[in-house]
Amino acid sequence: MNGREAYPEGATECRCLPDSTASFKDTPCSRDVKQSPKFRFRYDDEGESQAENDKAAHPCVLASLLQDHSSCDCEIKVAIQTEHFQTEHFQTEHFQTKQRTAADSSSPENARAKKYPGYCYPFLLLVILAHLSALLFMICRISRGGDGRSRLDCEVLIVGGGFAGSYAAYQLAPHYGSRLCLVEGLPEVGGRIRDVSEKPGMGPKFGLGAMGVADSQTEMKSLANELGITLQTGTVSEVQKAQGKYFFNRGGSFENRSRLCEELFPNRNCTGNSGRTPLGAMFGRLMELRNASLELSTRERFAEFADFPALVTAHFGADGLAFLRESVSHVGSISAHGALDFLANLPKGAGKSYPVGGMSEFIVRMLDSAVSKGMQIYRGEPVQRIEHQAANEVFIVRTPAFTITPQRVLCSIDPIGFADVTGNVAEQIKGSLEFQGIVPQTVVTVTAWWHDRWWEESVYGGKNLSKAAHYRSCFNNMLVPTFPYGRDQNVTRAVYDDGTCVEKWETIDTTERLQREVVKELQAFFKDVTVPRPRSLNGFVFKNGWHFQQPQSVKSNDEVFEWSRRPFSRSSNFSLIGEAYNLNHAGWCDGALQSVKAVLTEHYNFTFSGTATTIASKIDSL
C-alpha cells in the first residue's frame, strides 16, 4: 500500500520509525520521501515535544535526495488538523507505510492497557502536553498571513539546495541553528548534482550531472575528507576521432592532439616553434593576449572581435579554430574576454577523483550536518517574489506556502530561475548589466548501464579506456569510469553534448528511441565491435548546465563575481551564490564553493585558514 492510500482523512503527520539518534544518511528514510502538495510531513522523536527537539526538517523531511526511491516504513498518525504544523511535503509513489490503530490488540501498548486499566491515561496526558508544547512553539515560528501563506520566521534564509546552498547551510548552521532556513524549489535537493540508480532505490548510483573533483581542487578534496567521503581515482586513457581518423592519449600525455594537428592541419605551425603541444602553444599565446588586455577597461578588451571564435580565427586562422573544435569541444559564440579569463582559471592537470556514492554524497552529508544543528529545510517551495522592506531592514520572500521575513539572504537562483521571480530585489538584479551578460549553456547527458563492458573488446577502447570523444558527433564524448565504484556497475556516461546536437536530443520522447540513437552514435565510433542495446539508461537535459558571458559583454568575470556578493544596492545583506556568478570557475562545484566562501568572508565575518574547508571560525560573535 502506498502512502497516499494509507493516509487517512485528517492525518497531519507521518513519523519515520528509525531511532531518532540515527543520522540522516543512515536511516532508511534518507533516500526517498518525495514531494506532494497534498500532504505534510514532520519528524518528531517518540515522547519528545517539537519545542524540545526542533527537527521539523530532520532525516525524514530531507529524504528523497536526487531521485533515489527507497522504501521507508512510516507510522500514520491521526491528529488534530492545524495550520501550524506545515513543514515539509512528500511524494508517496515509492513510499511504503503502515497504519496502526488502537484496535490493534497485538501491539505491546494495547496489551499493557488491557492488563493495567488506566495505563493509557498518563501516557495520553503526556502526549497531549507534548503536542500543545509543539503547537505553541510552531505558532511562534509559523503563523498564517492575510494572503493565505504561512509566515515563517528565519533570521538567515538560503534559497536553493544545490551545492552552493548546501555548502552555505553546512557553514552557517553551527552559528544560527534553527534561525537558519533553506527553501528549495524542486521536490529534491542537489541542483545539477543528479545521481541515479539503475533501478530506483536499488544499487549504487551514477551521475547525470556533476561527477568528479579535479586533482588541483584542493578545497573540494579537503571537504570530502572532512565529510568522510571516499574519493577514488582511475586511469586516463582516451581515444579521439576526428575526420575519420583515431588518435590515442594514454596516461594523460595528450599526444593524440599533437598527432591530430599534424595529420589533419598540415598547413599550420602546430606548435608555433615553442616546443609545446599544439594546444599548449595555442593557449600560451591566448594567455599572452589576455594578460596584455588586463590594463584596459572591460569595454575595451577585445572589443574588435564579435566573440571568442572570431578572436581565435584572427590569431590562428580558420584551421586554428577547426583544430580547437576537433580536439577540445564545441566552441560557441561567447565573450572573448570571458572565455580567456575562464581558460586562465582552468584546473591544472588531467586527473580527477570520484566520490564513492556519487557527488550527491556532498549534498547529503552537508545537509545532514546542517539539519542536525537545527536548520529548517523546505522543499517544493520555489521563490516567487523577493522584496526589500527598507523601513525595518528585512526581506520579504514569498513561496507558494510561505511568506518569509529574513534579515539576510543567500540566493543561489541562477539566471534561468530568476525569470519568473518578481519584487524590487529581483527586478534590480535582472536589470543589471552583470546579470544580463550571463548566458546559460544547455547540456544533455545520457547514462547507460550495460550487460558487459563491450568497449574493452574494441581496438579503439581497451580495458583502461576512460573517454571516447568525437566532438563533431552527436554523442560528443562517452565517459567510462575506470575507478572501482563506477567500473563495477558496467555503466558509462554514453552521451555528453553541450552544443553539437542538443536540439536533437531534446526532441527524443521515448526510451526506445533514445536507446536506438545512443547505439547508433556509438556504433559509428566503435566500428570493430557490435554495440549492444543498453540494459537501461537515463537521460537529462540541463538548461543551465554551466554559464558563460554573452558576446561583447561589458562586464568581466571578476566584475560579475564582485557584483554578486552585493547585487542589491540598498542592502549588503542579500548575496547571490553559485557557479553561475563565479564565471572563472563555471561548471565546477568548486566554483560554487568559492562563491559561498567569498560571501561568508565579506559579509558574515568568517575566516578560512589556508585551503581547508573545516567549519569556519568567526571573528566576531553573531
TrEMBL record:
GO terms for molecular function: oxidoreductase activity. Residues 167-595 form the Amine oxidase domain. InterPro entries: Amino_oxidase, FAD/NAD-bd_sf. Residues 98-109 have a biased composition (Polar residues). It holds the Pfam family Amino_oxidase. Residues 91-110 are annotated as: Disordered. The chain crosses the membrane at residues 121-140. It comes from the Eukaryota. Keywords: Membrane, Transmembrane, Transmembrane helix. This is Amine oxidase domain-containing protein. It comes from Hypsibius exemplaris.
